[in-house]
């Protein structure tokens, strides 16, 4: 068995079609046609992935996901219609892992499902570092989506601040000189002086360390900085 998938979709023919295709591909499926059942089944069942329509009777998909995420992190792919007032960004913020827009090619959906299950398997087998997602002590960086959170609170970072934080987290525990940081984050084409690094470290500290009363980035006098995962 490749995985157990819940289909929450009120268009009966589409739900049936998905069920047939997924079964043919070797997945086991369950399905329901409204948001209330969808939420109950996803909370009580043991699913590897959920296909979740947005416009649903009783409880819409966004609300189902919001309530589900209070309890579980089962991967969710939104099935959105072109005319849904679905905002991709807020959907992903809510914790959807991916989405497809109807009408979609089944091959595309199957590829997304395989990708998500693979990512999930990988993240479960490594402790706290994976390709697209880094996390330490409540600080979490989603590389694919450029989203940083601290204990579920979103931290707004500019592109450069994000790149800098990512470099720190990828090199956790390793002292990074200003020159190394410049080279990796700004690139060889940066001709200014290394004070820019101090400026950006200050930005990140004000947005994470100061804001949440934690300490991630430590100064190593005369050398540079190190990100540590100790409290
Ligand atoms: Ca619908």
Describe the structure.
This protein has a five-stranded parallel β-sheet with strand order 2-1-3-4-5, with helices on both faces. The chain is elongated. The longest helix has 20 residues, at 106-125. The chain has 231 residues and is an alpha/beta fold. A hairpin with a 2-residue loop joins strand 6 and strand 7 (133-136). Residues 126-130 have low confidence and may be disordered. It has helices at 12-24, 35-44, 61-69, 88-94, 106-125, 159-170, 178-186, 195-212, and strands spanning 4-8, 28-32, 49-53, 76-81, 98-102, 129-130, 133-136, 139-142, 147-150, 153-155, 176-177, 217-220, 224-227. The protein folds into two domains: 4-127, Response regulator (Rossmann fold, 3-Layer(aba) Sandwich), CATH 3.40.50.2300; 133-227, Winged helix-like DNA-binding domain superfamily/Winged helix DNA-binding domain (Arc Repressor Mutant, subunit A), CATH 1.10.10. It is built from eight helices and 13 strands. Helix 6 packs across helix 7. Helices cover 42% and strands 23% of the residues. Calcium ion binds at residues 10-11, 53, 55-56.
């Amino acid at each position: 068995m490749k995985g157990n998938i819940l289909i929450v979709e009120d268009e009966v023919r589409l739900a049936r079609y998905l069920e047939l295709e997924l079964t043919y591909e070797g997945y086991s499926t369950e399905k329901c046609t409204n948001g209330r059942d969808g939420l109950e089944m996803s909370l009580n069942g043991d699913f590897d992935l959920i296909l979740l329509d947005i416009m649903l009777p009783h409880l819409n998909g966004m609300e189902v996901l919001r309530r589900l995420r209070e309890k579980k992190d089962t991967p969710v792919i939104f099935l959105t219609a072109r005319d849904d007032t679905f905002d991709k960004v807020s959907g992903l913020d809510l914790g959807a892992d991916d989405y497809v827009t109807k009408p979609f090619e089944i091959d595309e959906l199957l590829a997304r499902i395989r990708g998500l299950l693979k990512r999930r398997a990988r993240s479960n087998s490594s402790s706290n570092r994976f390709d697209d997602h880094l996390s330490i002590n409540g600080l979490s960086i989603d590389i694919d989506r450029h989203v940083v959170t601290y204990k579920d609170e979103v931290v707004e970072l500019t592109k450069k601040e994000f790149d800098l934080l990512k470099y720190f987290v990828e090199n956790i525990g390793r002292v990074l000189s200003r020159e190394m940081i410049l080279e990796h984050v700004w690139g060889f084409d940066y001709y200014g002086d290394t004070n820019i690094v101090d400026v950006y470290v200050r930005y990140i500290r004000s947005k994470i360390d100061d804001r949440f009363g934690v300490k991630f980035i430590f100064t190593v006098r005369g050398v540079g900085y190190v990100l540590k995962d100790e409290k």
